[in-house]
Each structure stands twice: as structure tokens, then as C-alpha cells.
Amino acid sequence: MMSTTEFKILGVAGSLRGGSYSTQALSLILRNAEKHGAVVRLLELGKANLPMYGSGQVPEQVSSAVQWADAFVLASPDYHGSMSGALKNFLDHFFEEFAGKLFGYVVASHEKGLTVMDQMRTVVRQCAGWSLPYGVSVNGEQDFSAGSLASAKVDRRIKMTGRDLVVYGRLLKAQFQSDLAGTEAETFVAHYR
Ligand SMILES: Cc1cc2nc3c(=O)[nH]c(=O)nc-3n(C[C@H](O)[C@H](O)[C@H](O)COP(=O)(O)O)c2cc1C
């Protein structure tokens, strides 16, 4: 039976490029998550006016979107085997907001982008977030054709990600909230009470 509690997912687009493949894949994941009952929002870092960490205030729209989210999908281009500077800068601004939340990942790369995926996972682990045990890798020129996704394999992963984010994200959220309200000391959640 589907839970009636609202489950909110924020997609963070780390490419500033018009026609970005990682952003297109991210949008498809969000659409699939909606089909599984999630409420979704897209944060495009190219339009967010987020200052470099330490040089100014986080815009209200960005901080409220992060506070709002129960789960996240991070999307990045592969830049020299790393996540984009825009995405890293976004992550630098937050810490406790990510604790106990589930994260999914998308990378646009010609080489699968596994090092990019690892870097995003490292940041999330450092902030006490949970990661899906797989990610979506898209090779734009091969996997997209005339503006649409043309790869059945990537399509399956995208659908899996949308589904798993909602199903596993709900479980993690419920347990985190229960532990937060509880008194048990032997859980990482005790730190956030
Ligand atoms: C500065 C820069 C560095 C890049 N480095 C890599 C790389 O190391 N490996 C790779 O496969 N692609 C690399 N690319 C290609 C991008 O990952 C690719 O174009 C990707 O589609 C960009 O993501 P987007 O479509 O979401 O903007 C690089 C592109 C740029 C602009």
C-alpha cells in the first residue's frame, strides 16, 4: 500500500550548459519519482545565483528548497574526472541539512564518470547522508537522439532510480524521524536531537 505522507525530492542540476545531458536525465528521474507518488522540485544551479562558499549569503530560494527536501538527486557533468565546481560549491553550503536523507546520482560523461560519482558519494557520506547503491551514467551523444533518451539501458536505470528514491527514501525518513523523537543513544541520529 502506498504511503499517504508527502515525500519531497529535490533535483540539483550541476551543469550550467544549455542542453545539458545530466540535467535532462535528472528531469526524467524526477518525472519517474512523481509517478511513484513523490513531490519534486528542480534546482538549476545555473539560475540560482549561489555565491562561492564564504563570499555571501545563500539565496532564500535555495536554502528553503534544501530545507524542504526529504531526498536529493545530484546531477553533474564529468569535468576532468570530477564533479562540476557549481555542484561542489552548492554542497559546501550545507551540512546537517543532508543528514539521514537519501541521495541519488547522475553523471554525464564519455567515460561513465565513476570518479565523479564517488566524489559525490564521499561528500554525502561525510554529511551523514545515505546513497543509493548505484547511479545513472549518461553518455550524451550516444544515449540521447534528437533531444530524447534513446538508450533502453539508461531508461531502466532512470526508472529504477525514481522508484528506489521514493521507496527506500520513505523508509529512511520514517526511521530517522522515529530515532530523532526517541531517546536511544546508540544511533547516529542521536547527534541531531
Ligand atoms: C572542462 C571540461 C572537462 C571535461 N572532462 C571530461 C572528462 O574528464 N571525462 C569525460 O568523459 N568527459 C569530460 N568532459 C565532457 C563532459 O563531461 C560532457 O560534455 C558532458 O556531457 C557534460 O555534461 P552536461 O551535458 O550535463 O553539461 C569535459 C568537459 C569539459 C567542459
Describe the structure.
The protein is of the alpha/beta class. It has one domain (7-192): Flavodoxin domain (Rossmann fold, 3-Layer(aba) Sandwich), CATH 3.40.50. Helices cover 41% and strands 19% of the residues. The chain contains 6 helices and 8 strands. Helix 1 crosses helix 6. It is globular, with a radius of gyration of 16 Å. The structure holds flavin mononucleotide. The site of flavin mononucleotide has 16 residues, from helix 1.
Short description:
It is built from six helices and eight strands.
Q: What is the quaternary state of this protein?
A: single chain
CATH superfamily: Flavodoxin domain
Strand content: 15-25%
Query: What is the C-level CATH assignment?
Result: Alpha Beta
In terms of per-residue confidence, which ranges show pLDDT below 50 for 5 or more consecutive residues? none
The CATH topology comes to Rossmann fold
The mean pLDDT is: 96
Order of helices and strands: EHEHEHEHEEHEEH
Main sheet, how many strands, which sense, barrel?
A: 6 strands, parallel
Bound molecules: flavin mononucleotide
Structural class: alpha/beta
Basic shape: globular
| Corresponding CATH architecture | 3-Layer(aba) Sandwich
Q: Tell me the distance between the termini.
A: 30 Å
**Separate helix tally:** 6
The number of strands is 8
